[in-house]
């Protein structure tokens, strides 16, 4: 799980830095859904 969060953070830093889309609320919801999905799969 640590690796997934690390890769997600790395991806977001690059994308947000390049596109400058750090204030879009849809991104926050997407990130939260993906993290919940990862925890759910890990739990199963």
Model regions low in confidence, pLDDT < 50 over at least 5 residues = none
Give me the number of helical elements. Answer: 2
Shape label: flat
Strand content: under 5%
**Between the first and last Cα atoms, what is the distance in angstroms?**
14 Å
Order of helices and strands: HH
Helix content: over 70%
Rg for CA atoms = 12 Å
Largest sheet: none
Mean pLDDT: 77
Number of strands: 0
> What is the SS-derived class?
mainly alpha
Number of domains: 1
Descriptive keywords:
44 residues, mainly alpha, flat
Describe it for me?
The structure is a single chain. The protein has one domain. 84% of the residues lie in helices and 0% in strands. It is built from 2 helices and no strands. It has helices spanning 2-19, 25-43. The longest helix is centred in the last third of the chain and has 19 residues, at 25-43. The protein is flat and about 35 Å long.
What's a concise summary of this model?
The chain contains two helices and no strands.
């Amino acid at each position: 799980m640590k690796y997934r969060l690390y890769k997600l953070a790395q991806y977001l830093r690059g994308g947000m830095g390049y596109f400058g889309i750090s204030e879009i609320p849809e991104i926050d919801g997407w990130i939260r859904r993906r993290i919940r999905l990862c925890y759910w799969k890990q739990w199963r």
